[in-house]
What does this fold into?
Amino acid sequence: MKNWGAAVFLPAAAFALLVSAPAAAQEKTGNKAGFSIAPGTARIVLMRPSVKVGEQSTGGMFEPNADWTAQARENLGKAIAATQGRLGNIVVDYEEPNGADTAAVAEYRNLFSTVANSVITYQFFPGNRLPTKKRDDAFEWTLGPDIAALPGMAGNDYALFITTEDHYGSAGRKAAQIFAAFAGVSVPTGVHKGYAGLVDLKTGELVWLNADLKMGGDVRTAEGAQKRVEQLFEGFPGRTGIPQTVTAGN
Amino acid sequence: MAGKIAGALIAGMLVAAAPAMAGNSLVAPGSKVQVAKSGMSIRSDGEWNKLGRRLGPNTETWTIDGDELNDVTFYGGIADGLPIFREVDKKNRPLPRVSSTMLVTDIPTLFETSYRIAYDTPLMKIDTVEPTSFAGGKGVRFTYSFTRPNEELHRKGEARAAVVGGKLFLITYEAPTLHYFDKTLPAFRQLADSAAF
It folds into this structure.
């Protein structure tokens, strides 16, 4: 996306802030027409979540923070593990391959985040929806059918991708907010992206997505991470609350 | 100091809010349309979405799934002395300018430098350059690859360009290398082949 300047194409986060008026209410969940999973019928492989945490500089730029990212990764990992058995179907952790395949898996994680960004920008915001995405029941998004060829995918029905990215306002950013407030202008602080998506391994299609740029829960804390995970799995297909037996690696 | 920062931020917010949220529109299959407010016309065999927002006064972007996944941008007649798209930081990192006397082989370098500045990244390179015909005249075809800052997804691009009547005409296509680039490449080439004045 050519998002190199404020006056040109806008990144999803900035776009969301500009169209936050009630008239352009954002949708947060989408699923492919006719898609559903009955509880206890599917085997889902959970990809390692993509987690980024950092600070938002005074000018709004993202500055990654390795300590916060490590904390968040641990907190979210525990919260997901605690939730995994209550998703209505068997959810197993993906066993990351070695060598060249590591890069291929990472590229799919990146592609998922980019596809989710596009869904938010061009489908979830009705005012900016692409004409070809406006048709009845149109939720046509894909990672491509080759995802099924990744090592370890055989025998699974769906891949579950999770992306979180949190930008916490720096002291300078917060000061700027206060000055801006005096001038009657809103300077938003923080980005709290959370995406969870299911990909059908038979087709590569994204069949369910829950995505929001303003998720709750401070992922740097255990409680906050639990809250974030609950929000990520809201409306998860086939979820019943009945625990399923999970055998990792099988 | 903080006042200056707040002032700059407020100004930035106002600039960001300035472009009208012009709607996106459908390009129907079989249609022949003038693009990028120029004399260049394109015939589309397939269905595209034309984005309401522009990179610059003489540009136009078409997409199928959003410009992050498949992006065809038409640069229609960029005149001598102008950058190919809007400046991002004119004071510190000015964009290179089109020259009416430039050779077609200069175009890939102009494009590469513009992207490196706009994305503020060295991770942009031209992969191949070869002569081609463009709207019936002499032109250049080049391919490129890049990643954006704070993002690891690899992207590829293909472009065709020519200088016609002292102005730069350029058509670019770019998409993630994984799945998307190859999927939409034939549709892009059909558009580029149809370019006419």
About this structure: The two ends of chain B are 53 Å apart (CA to CA). Chain B is about 20% helix and 35% strand. Residues 1-20 of chain B have pLDDT under 50 and may be disordered.
